[in-house]
Design goal:
homodimer; about 400 residues; alpha/beta; 7-stranded mixed beta sheet; 3-stranded antiparallel beta sheet
């Protein structure tokens, strides 16, 4: 009897996901009491939230219950959106206001709402490989095509010519993510400006708006005092999706937003469509979490911790001989696998207690992603296991 | 230049919604300092959350930050799902387990995920008029058709024959909501059994599963010691969507779940598809809210407060002469408008400071919905305004 289960949803829920499989493997192992498990599978901050987070929750509990726990407007509390807009103006210039913001349940909620709102079935969305695997889902769920375009070799910077070649009359959007998950690359400002100029030219040529969707959950996770270009400053039709998951270490609390700068064509219609999408997908930020964001908007990211963690793992692996990309931002290490079959390499690493994520989920082969937002002991303790893995292979086989 | 805005999203975000329009009207008026505004537009509990809610938040803050604020599995923490399953077994029998539950961001998240997971574009979902307006959005967003079927006159009970006549080879699902928003009706157990028998027969005839989606946010809001039939006990392919918004008075915190009983055909595939849909729509319940649910799962609904509120408004309006349906559950009063044009009547009521919701959003004409989950002073204070409105019309004009 036909059960009517949607094939795509089933695939998303039951199909292969390297990240989720490794996460579940790790959870099972830990529950069984296994030791010497080094889990680098998921980007779950292993750093305490700043004290402001719990303090803001305690403050919120002083509010009358019906004010604190009742419905807010779908777009979020005005004072919270004002606090965010003020912070953005101070840091990036521009004329951002509360009316340009829609609070969402994390960056995922922001991305899925925006893609739902601004695409029609059959349109194409360009992503840059290696890319965050959930993009493909957020795109296909709205019956659009996910078009992967390779970044530049070694630097993993956007290849503007390659993106231009991939643009067709069906292109509606390009997604960029800087600092990048999984490579740790920060996109170069001039390359972003070139990308913007090209998108402006192609939009005019095709007589349609091609949006730039800037997914920025790692915006505050930047090392060595480097600057991270403000993407919305390089192209007028940029929409920004942000998350406090990483900067405030509250990934489980689902706090994010969409920013639609006033420069975006038909700004008010775009906001209305995103609000409409948000009703459908129901990615409204919970009331108490809105209060947290309102109080913590300017809290600095824990860069001391991440810098220390990056040093431990990057230097440890490079010393053994692994080809690892030096991350300028985010908290992922992108490593060339010792053999070309990244799934086989993941399985072999697993035998040594190392849970890595094979790169095919990210749209390319031959690499592994390590999330190094883990305990320092894991980062220090894993190195002998990586040495054994290296010795097993005798170094790179390709 | 084509901006690519999705027409449906734009309509959902900017189009007419009687509930939202009235809510915004009321907000503006209150901000302008207007007095004697009686806002019955939105179902936002005006009752304090039970003390367990804030206590559970305080308890949660004692957890290590990375445990409390980190990602949980998408389906939710195991101990929370176990607590819910135990509560369900104790109250309704059955063999419900943690594996049958997916935690979601409110009942809306549960509904949109389930409809996404179990329908294909072009299929039909039957709703019973008057129905909760968001159903239409959740259905149309997944490119399905919303098929309204009238309930029985006066009682607002499901009309099983009418539902059967509306079933076609494209029917995938019937949504029921008891206690009902907006009528306050509790569906009769025998009628639900008849509905289940008919759905079983039609499923066999059409060789496809027709799901019964039971939306139960008001399950605990039942008056006069009446019992509320357990819908999942009347039909094996029932999927339950629940929210703690009303029972715990935490509408803003987005806490709900989907229950897929083991009797549902291809149970594990259905769960996987709902988890897949949940990744797409991102209605994952925030971590701290999961802890609240885990501790408060058995907290009783504030029935004393709602019984008092129901008495104030129902008796007050009936005494004036309004035709109002006596609610057996939920916290809405369904009132026949004094003139057949419900929009015109809403506007006239507004002149007296009364914010009601016209029934056309609910799929029928000639009625108004009042949410009486408001302050007692509003319920007592509004009666002179209702009397003036009555006098204005000189009673019913139709």
């Amino acid at each position: 009897m036909a059960d009517g289960i949607d094939a795509l949803c089933y695939e998303f829920g039951a199909g292969k996901s390297a990240i989720r499989e490794q996460f579940e493997r790790a959870t099972k192992l830990k529950e069984s009491g296994a030791e010497n498990i080094y889990d680098f599978s998921i980007g779950n901050p292993y750093v305490d939230a700043p004290p402001e987070v719990n303090e803001s929750i305690v403050h919120a509990l002083e509010l009358p219950s019906v004010d604190l726990h009742g419905y807010t407007a779908n777009r979020g509390l005005t004072y919270v959106r004002e606090a965010i807009a003020t912070d953005l103006r101070q840091r990036f210039g521009g004329n951002y206001s509360a009316d340009d913001l829609v609070l969402t349940a994390g960056a995922s909620g922001a991305l899925t709402s925006t893609i739902c709102a601004l695409t029609s079935p059959g349109e194409e969305v360009i992503v840059l490989t290696p890319y965050y695997p959930e993009y493909r889902m957020f795109i296909q769920a709205w019956h659009c095509k996910c078009i992967p375009v390779a970044t530049q070799p070694t630097t993993f910077q956007p290849d503007v010519d390659a993106i231009e070649r991939a643009i067709t009359p069906c292109t509606r959007m390009v997604i960029v993510n800087s600092p990048n998950n999984p490579t740790g690359a920060i996109y170069d400002e001039q390359i972003l400006r070139d990308l913007g100029a090209m998108l402006r030219r192609k939009s005019a040529e095709l007589d349609k708006t091609i949006y730039l969707l800037s997914d920025e959950p790692y915006r505050e996770i930047v090392y060595d005092g480097r600057s991270n270009p403000w993407v919305a400053g390089t192209y007028s039709d940029t929409i920004v999706c942000y998350s406090y998951s990483k900067s405030l270490s509250i990934a489980g609390e689902r706090a994010g937003y969409v920013l639609v700068p006033r420069s975006v064509i038909n700004h008010d219609r775009v906001i209305d469509a995103i609000l409409g999408a948000q009703r459908v997908v129901n990615t409204i930020m919970p009331s108490i979490i809105q209060r947290v964001v309102g109080e913590c908007v300017g809290a600095p990211a824990p860069m001391d911790a991440y810098t220390r963690k990056r040093g431990l793992i990057y230097e440890g692996l490079a010393r053994i001989g692994y080809e690892v990309v030096h991350p300028d931002g985010a908290f992922y290490l992108w490593m060339r696998a010792l053999e070309p079959d990244e799934d086989a390499f993941s399985d072999r690493a697993f035998e040594h207690g190392l849970l890595l994520v094979a790169s095919n989920d990210f749209g390319i082969g031959g690499y592994e992603r390590l999330s190094y937002c883990v305990a320092d002991e894991t980062l220090a303790g894993c190195l002998p296991a990586f040495q054994e893995l290296w010795d097993d292979y005798g170094g790179y086989t390709w």
